[in-house]
Amino acid sequence: MRQSDKGLYDRIFRPRIYTLENGRTCEERRSRIPFVLIVLLAATIVSGEVTGFSFSTLIRRISYFFVMLGDMLPPDWAYMSQVWTPLWDTIKMSLLGSAIGAVLCIPFAVLSSENLLRNRAVTLFFKFFFSVVRTLPTLVVALIATYVFGLGTLAGTVAIAVFTFAYCGKILYEQIETVDMGSHEALEALGMGRMSAIRYAVWPQVLPSFLSTVLFCFEGNVRYASILGYVGAGGLGLILNEKIGWREYPRVGMILIALFVAVVAIESLSSWLRSKLT
Prior knowledge:
It is a single chain. The protein has helices spanning about 10, 35-50, 55-70, 85-110, 120-135, 140-150, 155-175, 180-190, 195-230, 235-245, 250-275, and strands at about 15-20, 25-30. The protein is mostly helical and about 280 residues long. Helix 4 (about 85-110) crosses helix 10. The protein is flat and about 85 Å long.
């Protein structure tokens, strides 16, 4: 191998050269794994210095976490009667927000698919739009929504719908761009309109995967919705923030247990439904 053909790494860490019995020579390139590990270690150290992360502080104060956890046990079972309504609000926010976001993202995903729309400027615009929406943190959207719609579950539903719209929309247009377009072209050649061809040729190919994505997103939204109460968007997060602030840890434990059971039940149902779609 000529010197000009070698990469920078091979120039710095020159390969080992062996002479075979027939007189020919061969090169054994040095493994890049040690170099990669050194770079990762250096990056970790620099990141720790920049962010102020300290292992000593972590080790010294981790015991407080277990003290707080111990204060949550046993939970205040009598408080469960006051948890049902916020828990139901959280589930309703997640379900409605997921449904709205999933439905709204469909036409935007079609407009972002290069194999369905030949105008590249339009597809690039809508792909950029999805990228912009995905950069908005859900908590920030919920905070803005509380100023627009007021405190309560409506703001939380809007925040979840925006997140679902961006997440499911991006995955949907990527799925559309990988479908087999043969049947779509055949239907158009027979005189069928573009939208009808998309409905009967493209949509059946992406529908199972899209529904599976929506169900997976709904699982996560139940957990996210429990945090939105910290900015006044209703749900479990509202009373969770209140009880943590008042150091009522037995009631905090009851809230977390209720949320855990709800999330496990929803994930089990969602997994069963996704298995039927595949």
